[in-house]
Amino acid sequence: MLSRTAENLYWMGRYMERAENMARILDVSQRLAVQGHATAQSEWSAVLAILYAEDVYADTHGEATEEGVTRFLTLDRNNPSSIWSCIRAARENARSLRASISVEMWESLNTTWLAIRDMTHEDIQAKSLREFCEWVKERSHLFRGMAHGTMLHDAGFAFIRLGTFLERADNTARLLDTKYQVLAYGGESDSAATYYEWGSVLRSVGAFRAYHQVYHDVITPERVAELLVLRPEMPRSLRFCFDKVTENLATLAEGRSLECERLSGEFGARLRYGRMERILGDGLHAFLKEVLDRVADIGLQISRDFLMTV
Amino acid sequence: MMVATYGEDDNNKGEPMAADGIFDEMYGWNGQVQPPYAKISEWLKNTPPDVFTSKLEQAELLFQKIGITFNVYGSAAGTERLIPFDIIPRILSAREWQKLQAGLFQRVRALQMFLHDIYHGQEIMKAGVIPASHILRNEMYRPEMKDVDLPGRVYVQIAGIDVVRVAEGEFYVLEDNLRTPSGVSYMLEDRAVMMRLFPKLFQENRVAPVDHYPAELLRQLRSVAPERAAGSPTVAVLTPGPYNSAYFEHAFLAEEMGVELVEGQDLFVRDDSVWMRTTQGPRRVDVIYRRLDDDCLDPLAFNPDCLLGVPGLLSVYRNGGVTLANAIGTGVADDKSTYPYVPDIIKFYLGEEPIIGNVPTYRCSRDDDRAYVLEHLHELVVKETQGSGGYGMLVGPKSTREEQEKFRQLILSDPAGYIAQPTLALSTCPTFVEEGVAPRHVDLRPFVLTGRDGMSVVPGGLTRVALTKGSLVVNSSQGGGTKDTWVLED
Amino acid sequence: MRVAINHETVYRYHAPANYSIQYLRLTPLSGPNQRVISWKLSTPGNLRSWTDGYGNHSHVLVVDEPHEEIRITAMGEVELADSGSPLLSEHDPLPPDIFLRSTRLTEADERIRSFADGFRPGVIANARRGLDNLMAGIRDTVDYRPGITHAATSARQALDAKAGVCQDHAHLFVSCCRSLGLPSRYVSGYLCTDDVGDDRMASHAWAETWVEGAGWLSYDVANRMSNAKAHVRVAIGLDYLDAAPVRGVRKGGGNEELDVEVKVGDAVKIQQALKERAQLQAQQ
After folding, report:
1. Cβ-defined contact of B277 to A254 (cutoff 8 Å)
2. Is the pLDDT of residue B6 over 60?
3. Which residue of C has its CA nearest to B144?
């Protein structure tokens, strides 16, 4: 397929996933702020930290407040990572691709775009931030479902999945990195606070119930980390994401031995055979930094191997 | 000019009033149903109007679903609009089509020879049949094509020849389109929709199929690939992108032919070849069906500000490393100022009289013609020699004094820039309008394909209909519609 | 006269460029007024030759690996005829009429038309004398001053600015001639001046105009020379864009710096100078 087509499909997948992750984080942060288990400001700063957007925000908006950060991340047209911008980018990529995606996928993306295009902050306030975030998640699920259900599971589909899972790995790593540092090392170990904070992390990745199904026990930071890093059955874990990326790269490589697949497979093996105590012992932060670097490298290598960025 | 209406009542079952001097495709001169329309006329009479209404709505939905749209220039921010489709087919008998086909082949064959000649030996200019200056000073004549030898000497792989009818067997060529003629996707989709809506009609009438056009186009394109691509040449459709008004057609044809739809950025030049950037690495392209203007094809050779093309393309083309369809430089042959010479061109290269003639044309560059034109502006259609889409045109009988005066000045300041033709009484065809069924003017654009081994044409073509009462303007860019065209097999 | 030429073009990019493609018109052809003794074109990357629509011996240079510099060197020796004679149309692939057409860089506006009209009676009376006067008129009106205009400046902009370089003089002359109904074309090449070391005009542009009965006559407006004698002809076209020594595009690369160094000299004199210097050194 044309490199440009593959690139569009890949980015369409990444942007939709990014939009969904943004909505999840926002949703949970708002709940935490409301419940008052951390100062509102620190919660909203933490959100920006996850997204590495503290400086950008500070330059243009000053203090981190609920309203400021929410506006920044939902509908700010100047923020290339706002939900508005992500959906717009996803739809733009799809527009160039109409021949490669199904009519239903296009229509669903287009409808999503048309709904958010002229939305205002007041529109969101009128219902609630939570409803807005639910809506974004729903549209993202619809998009994934359409892709899965209406596209040929061929190279095009594989590129969308690549984008989706690389983005998801990136997001999980950042979320975990930020929260772990803040929660594990800052403040007293107050079991109620732990429950709410870590519960929120789990909720933001839809893993609250999953945790209890796997661990049948109280929430501890170590187990949350394990769930999100190593558990193969958890669809947002790094292990799961890397497995999917490697799988899709293998499909796309068609027998050729490509560097991007090697990079992904190699790291995937570490996740497959890794042990959480070891990772925590060596330093979770360092490990997660490595994850982020590896994700970036894989992205770059995908460009070289498939997208002929020439 | 009076326009016929088919009766006053809602059901339009009344007898048609004959119009002065206008031939109706279904009702002829005097209300007598023409043989090819026999069955359709019955169908029109016997089908209740609400059936038609619901079918019309269905058609609209189908077209929306397909996404067949057209960006109309001048409409708000390039909004996409559906081209109106009329469900009453326009019908030609087998015999009529045979004659048309022979005329089309003759004309296109002569034009190919003309193009080869003006870019090589220039015999027709030496013989004085066409003044050399007319060709050499024409901006569409491309020095870059001088002495370039094309596979099969084919310059125009796809020609859209606009034909009009004024009486039963009397057709004229209105215009040649030899650069990037469009509309074939409507022809194909119109047929697909008609077959969905009225399957019975196709059982009752033996209509020649048209859906082999993409396969035939691919075959012809492959046949003119460079020698080295011999076995399995790679064809691609080059589009300016989704913001182009005909993008739907580019995507449609690429998909139907099973070839890639590419934009300039997907291609690059290296080693006297053109390559596509694919996920499996570079893949050489042998034939490019390009829907870009000449001027945009290569920013290193033509307009440096147009980034839609492929830098280096001209060098590969001149070296024979890629075939372009249509060739660069065909515009000199379809220019309105060349049109009056086409009958002479046919005679010069083929030694034959044209089977289908030109509309009588006055060339404002000639003194006597110009004098006549200026005297009769209110009766004539005046066209620019480099315009398209019907914008730079004066329709005499419909124009105001002011408009006529404006054209008088234009003609005086640039006589060579204008030709004029009498307003033809184009045939009309029954069409669904607000008031029911009424006659509207139609033309026909068949698409003639030429490859190394010969020419082919799919029976019929695109019928365009002017939806406004009495209007002669059928261009979709100005609000015309289309009809399915039937050639009966008998 | 035998002319030695060394023409070096260097593009430097502030960031790596991934793909660049250039059309090169850096190879002179032998003709009635010049004979190419030797010529060499050195480039990185992938070089293919082709002949363009005007008969220019051209090349396509493609560099498709990441690069920050492209260095193109053209050098060789050309023997010039003692007196330039007009070129006849059989030396060209294209008939003169082609060179009547207007381009963006040579389009004649009101001002150019009326400027040219001033010379019309003279040209009609005696074409060569009339064109000599046109050349003088343009040169008197438009100063030779680098830095005012640039590669994309059109003839009418140069007339407005009343200053320019050889490219502008040539465009203006061509524009006026076409306005007067005379086919005229842009010529790119080298000028061998007596000042060895002054390479301001070494890479040079001038014009040729078709005069019925005579042929293509050359007019070097910048130097007020008709009937070019010390000129090595490399490429022709409707304007600069057709005949430019290097014309290209690239992907990536950020900001670009261009350095051009042209050395043109009398081969015999150069040999002589080298010999003398060697003798001097041997004596020391």
Report:
1. no
2. no
3. C53
pLDDT of residue B7: 37
HSE of A2, CA atoms in CB hemisphere, 13 A? 24
For chain B, which domains are there? 361-422 (3.30.1490.270)
Question: Domains of chain C: which residue ranges?
Answer: 2-267
Question: Which residues in B lie closer than 8 A to residue A307 (C-beta atoms)?
Answer: 277, 279
Domain-wise residue ranges, chain A: 1-151, 152-310
Check CB contact of B259 with chain A, cutoff 8 Å.
no
In angstroms, the separation between the Cα of residue C184 and the nearest Cα of chain B is 13
Tens of pLDDT, residues B334-347? 998 899 999 999 99
Q: Which CATH class is domain C2-267?
A: alpha beta
Q: Which of C55, C45, C50 is nearest to C23 (CA)?
A: C50
pLDDT higher than 90, residue B435 = no
Q: How far is A17 from chain B (nearest CA, A)?
A: 23
pLDDT at C73 over 80: yes
pLDDT recorded at residue C196 = 47
- Among B132, B268, B314, the residue with its CB nearest the CB of C97 is B132
Which residues 164-183 of B have a C-beta within 8 angstroms of C? Answer: none
Q: Rounded to a whole number, what is the distance in Å from the CA of C18 to chain A's nearest CA?
A: 5
Q: What is the pLDDT of residue A46?
A: 78
B275: burial class by Cβ within 10 Å (0-12, 13-18, 19+)? buried
**How far is the C-alpha of C279 from the C-alpha of C284, rounded, in Å?**
9
Cβ contacts of residue A202 below 8 Å, gap of 6+? A208, A210, A211, A219, A224, A227
Q: Assess whether pLDDT exceeds 60 at residue B79.
A: no
Q: At C54, phi and psi to the nearest 5?
A: -95, 5
Q: Which of C19, C53, C100 sits opposite B146 (nearest CB)?
A: C53
HEC per residue, C217-249: EEEECCCCEECCCCEEEEEEECCHHHHCCEEEE
Residues 135-154, chain B, touching C (beta carbon < 8 A) = 136-137, 139, 141-147
Please report which confidence band the pLDDT of residue A86 belongs to, taking 50, 70 and 90 as the band edges: very high
Q: Which residues in chain C touch residue A309, judged by CB atoms under 8 angstroms apart?
A: 18
- Is residue B224 exposed (0-12), middle (13-18) or buried (19+ Cβ within 10 Å)? buried
Q: Which of residues 250-309 of A touch C (CB under 8 A)?
A: 309
CB atoms within 10 A of CB C140: 9
- Find out whether A4 and A159 touch, Cβ atoms under 8 Å: no
Position B392 confidence tier, pLDDT thresholds 50, 70, 90? confident
pLDDT at residue B66, as a whole number:
67
Chains sharing 3 or more CB pairs under 8 A with chain A: B, C
B280 vs chain A: nearest CA distance in angstroms? 7
**Residue A37: pLDDT band by 50, 70, 90 thresholds?**
low
A187 residue type, one letter: G
Find out whether A70 and A226 touch, Cβ atoms under 8 Å. Answer: no
CA proximity to B147, closest of B126, B120, B118: B120
Segment C101-131, tens digit of pLDDT: 999 999 999 999 999 999 999 999 999 999 9
Q: Would an 8 Å CB–CB cutoff place C18 in contact with chain A?
A: yes
Closest CA to B23 of B163, B170, B172, B167: B167
Touching chains, B (3+ CB pairs < 8 A): A, C
For A93, the closest chain B residue by CA position comes to B242
